[in-house]
Every structure is written in C-alpha cells, then in structure tokens.
Amino acid sequence: MSRRRGATAVLLAVLMALGGCSSAATGGPTSPSPSPSASDGLSQPTCQQAAEQVVAAVRERVASYEVSTTSASPSASSPAASGSPTPSSPGTAQLDPLTAAVAGARETIAQRKCSQSQFTSDLQAGLATIHPKGTIARAVLERISATLLGKMGQDSETKAVWPTEDLAQAAAEVAPGSTLELQAGTYRLSDSLVLLDEVTIEGAGKGRTIIESTAPDAAIVVATASPVEVTNLSLLLEPKVPASGVVSGPTAQLVLTNVRISGATSGNSQGGAAVQLAGTANQAAGTQTTLEVTGSQFDHNSWAGITVSGGHRVSVVSSTFSDNGQCGVCFLDAGSGSIDKSTFTNDAVALGATGTSAPVLLRSTISGGTVGIQVADKAAPIVDNVRITGAARAAVIFSGTAGGSMTNVTCAKNKYDIAIATTATPSLGKNSCTLVRGK
C-alpha cells in the first residue's frame, strides 16, 4: 500500500502553511469613510495614487500565496498565513500593507473629495493587471477584488447558481456562511475551485447536479478552517488529468452528504484520491472530527476513496467504496476515526492502516479486491461486526508491530482469512475466520 500524498507538493505546502485561511481576502468596504486621524490634505497622495497604493498592496498580498517548487511555503508570519488584514497587536497602530493602504485610501478620498466612481474605476483597472501564479493565489485575488469592488455580499445568503455561471466567481462573491444552491445540470471546472471561507455547496441530487472537472491537482481545495459542506451532487474527474477530487488542509471542517466522487487519477505519484485530507507525518492525533461523510459514493479512483493523513479524524456512515485502485479508505500517520454501516466492493485494499493510525470499522461488508483489511507499522484498528468475502490474497493482514482488535468478523471464500506476522500483536476475539501465522 503506497504512502503517496497526492495533489502536488506545492499545493499541499500552501495548505500546510495556511492551516486554514479564514477570510483571507478581506480588505475593507468600497465606500471609504474619513479616518479620525486624517492629516493635512496637502500631504495626501492624489486620488489615482491612492488607488495605485491599494493595488500595490493587493499585489503583495496575492504574491504571498504564490509558491514555487524551490520555495514551497510562505512563512508563518506572512500574510498568507495570517488570515484577514488585522493590526499586528491590540492597541497598536501597525497595520499590514493591505489594511494600511485601504485606510489611507479612505483618508485621501475624504481629504481630496475624490470621485468614488473614478476611484473604483482606477482600482478595478489596476486589479486587472495582477496575474497571480497558482490556484490559491488566483482565488485570493478574486476574493479581495470582490470585497474591494463591492461585489461581495455583506450577509450570508442562499444564492442560486446555474450551469452557465462561474462557480469560482460565485464562491468569491458570497459572504461567509452562505449557501451556493447549484441547480440541476452539468458544471465544468477547468481550474480548482478554492474555498476560502465557510460555505455550503448544495446540488439538486447526485444524478441531477454534476460537476465535471479537468482541473489539475484538485477539483476542490478547502483552504479554510471554517465549516465547508458539499451535498447532493456528483463530482466527476477527467481520468486523463492527474488530480484528486477534494483536498483539504490540516484544520478542515468538511462535511460530505449524498455525494459521489469518481475518476480521480494519479500521475507521477500525485493525485488519485476522491478525498484527500492533507497533513504532516508528525502531526498529533486529532480529537475533533475534520471530515463527516454520510450516504456518499467513492468509486473508480486510481489511489483511494478517502485518504486520512496527519492527525485528521473522520466519521463515515452508510457510504460505499468500489473499484478504487489502492484502497477504499487509507489511514496514514496518526489518522483516526470511524467507518460504520458501509460497503466496500473490489477495492484493491478496502481498509488500509499504517503509521500509528487507529481507525474503527463497524457493521460493514467487504467483498472482492486483493486484501480486505491491511494493517502495517504500529497501526491499531478496531474491527467489529464485519463480513469479508472473496479477497484474492487475504481477508486481513497484520504486519510490522501492528496491534488493535478484531471481533465478530466473518470470512468466506478468501484465499486466506487472517494472516498475522510474528511481530504483530492484534487482539482477536470471536471470529468466523481461520488464522495463519507467518513472517
């Protein structure tokens, strides 16, 4: 079982640096008001210069989200990791460049009695000259532009979106906490849809609302620690383009309900997971659920249905996994969580657990594939009330110094049932399986 991380190293590096960039693109209202500390009008820049200063600050902010393969992540103190523009500390007047530029523009407009329409026109023209490199940088620019130009809603709302509309633009223009209500039809993504704030994306049903993605790396990127929910739709990826379906950072709060994700493809050890929860190998096991999945389907993904790395914790209920190339669900590192009342069919490995992961598999069925449950390293799963049939190699394999427990497991028509290396020490309760000891 491979330990590939998927997406691209660059995209994952940005997610690690962000850790969740809630409201990363706010920059102030488009109708500036006088600052209480306005200075002599003669010292003010011209109206056009004020607009240029805001554009320069936006350019700097957006650039902080741009990464290269040689410099993969912004520093923790950079704007890319700090969220909304805020004072550096309570009670001080030090502002980050974007906040300062917006405050300065308010002051200039008040002092020079600038035309608001002309200022907005100059600002819009300047923002159009910014051409960011990278998926997240482009999304941040869209969010900042929507805020500065007055296109973003002030309150959360339910906004209907039609297949002919731009999903990324719709996401950039709604306030945090809003719902994008996708109507029936087919939506096409050629670039990743990056979610920077709390949002719900709700379709009309798995068979009625379909997102077709040809975006490289990832169809949807969850780059916020705020709740994100995707429900009642299908996400179908172009198999010729290496990518994962949904990729999230280490502090995600992602909910998937009644969705189907299919066709994720790996290339050069990248991509291939329907859902990839990104984290670092040294991340401690989490105590809060970062992914909730209910009534969903993950099929024909070249790597996995769901990969749980870092310290992510998941809850999967009443879902199906089929024909995934390496595993239905892969738990890596210190990943944990539960899978209940779910079905695995013809996945190479239905449930894989490595590192120090500790998944729980309950009341589920596994059929076909190569191995039903494969446990390695120091992983310690809890398996109870599971039926495993038709595995070409073995129903269950414990290797390394793996532990955990298995009770009420039923095995039928597998080449081998439970195979345990001499170094592994799982606890076996009452099971209807034969046991094989080996190296």
Beta strand %? 25-35%
Number of domains as seen in the coordinates: 2
CATH H-level name of the largest domain... which superfamily? Single-stranded right-handed beta-helix, Pectin lyase-like
CATH class category label of the largest domain: Mainly Beta
Compute the CA-based radius of gyration: 25 Å
The helix fraction, in percent, is 10-25%
Task: Report the strand count.
Answer: 30
Strand order in the largest sheet:
4-7-9-13-16-19-22-24-26-28-30
Low-confidence stretches: 5-10, 17-42, 68-93
Query: What is the molecular shape?
Result: elongated
CATH architecture of the largest domain: 3 Solenoid
Q: Mean pLDDT across all residues, rounded?
A: 86
Measured between the Cα atoms of the first and last residue, the distance is 18 Å
Briefly note the CATH topology name of the largest domain: Pectate Lyase C-like
Please, what is the oligomeric state? single chain
Which structural class do you get from the secondary structure elements?
Answer: alpha/beta
Number of helices: 6
Largest sheet features: 11 strands, parallel
